[in-house]
Write a structure and sequence with these properties.
- The two termini are 34 Å apart.
- The protein folds into two domains: 64 residues, OB fold (Dihydrolipoamide Acetyltransferase, E2P) (Beta Barrel); 54 residues, no CATH class.
- The chain has a five-stranded antiparallel sheet with strand order 3-2-1-4-5, with no helix packed on it.
- Helix content is 36%, strand content 31%.
- A hairpin with a 4-residue loop joins strand 1 and strand 2.
- The radius of gyration is 20 Å and the shape is elongated.
- The chain is an alpha+beta fold.
Length: 126
């Protein structure tokens, strides 16, 4: 069974590419990921079957051999800093909630920034 490393993967688009140990790139669709896995990080070692697709090789029945170690866990924020960030986030969300109560929705740009901030704080909490 071929092996390789994840070259890149975009969970929002549902696909990416594997750099095969045998050479070349192999298309990776989200449907080939193991059950319960929604994304893989670049550098993660995989074992996979291969089928010839319309545009070249495509991975089938992917198995994660060696997940990449999480960099986030080794760079966790100081609890005091995280507390201050969460307090600021509460103020931001309170203002957003008050605006929504008055019928004012955030612009797409504002909503995207708030969503990114929420994701970042969630990552820091894990």
């Amino acid at each position: 069974m071929p092996t390789g490393k994840v070259k890149w993967y975009d969970a929002a688009k549902g696909f990416g590419f594997i750099a095969s140990d045998e050479g070349g790139d192999v298309f990776l669709h989200e449907s080939a990921l193991p059950a319960g896995v929604t994304t893989v990080r670049p550098g993660t070692r995989l074992e996979f079957g291969v089928a010839e697709g319309r545009r070249g090789e495509q991975a089938l029945s992917v198995r994660i051999v060696d997940p990449m170690p999480s960099v986030a866990s080794s760079t966790q924020k100081d609890p005091e800093d995280l507390a201050a960030i969460i307090e600021d986030l509460i103020k931001l969300l309170d203002g957003l909630g008050n605006g929504l109560r008055r019928g004012r929705r955030p612009t797409a740009d504002q909503a995207g920034k708030v969503a990114a901030l929420l994701r970042g704080v969630a990552d820091d909490l894990e």
